[in-house]
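User: Hey, quick favor. My workstation is busy. Could you predict this chain's structure for me?
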Amino acid sequence: MKQSHTNLKHGRVTAGHYVNSPPMTRTRTHRQSTIWQDSVAAGEENVNMELLTKLQGELNETFEDLDQKLNNVLARQEYEYMQTYTHYVKKKERELRDMITLLGEKARNADRVKDEKIRELEKVCRTALANETKMEKQVRELKDQVRKWKDQKEAIESDQEFLKRKTLEAKRKNKLLKTAIQRM
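Assistant: No problem, here it is.
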């Protein structure tokens, strides 16, 4: 796109340059050629100066319009960029909030699972403690029974010993009586 540009600080116009490229020769439009030929044919310098001044004014107006248009384009691009950036940031914020919510739910689920495991372990501990208490009671009862049986055994053994002695004594007495009866 071939454009003329101006050094707006100094009000100078440089024609026939591509934007950001070195100066090149400019081909004249049909209108400019006609104006140029008319002024040369008339041979008047005033006309040429007026024409140059008029063309310079038109060029300056065009550059001012270009500056305004460029400013408008830049402002629109800046606005669109800010709108896009705002949309992007809001999207990322939404994603971040969703992630935080998801992590919160996962943490709550993990806490719930931990609480359930703790409750299960506490239940197992209570059951084990109840079983231990029950078994200790059974052990005490069994020990008491064993003591009673030992006592009964000892009583039976002592009775048995007593009866053996009495039986032996009775046998001895019977023998003595038999021998005394037979002697008699």
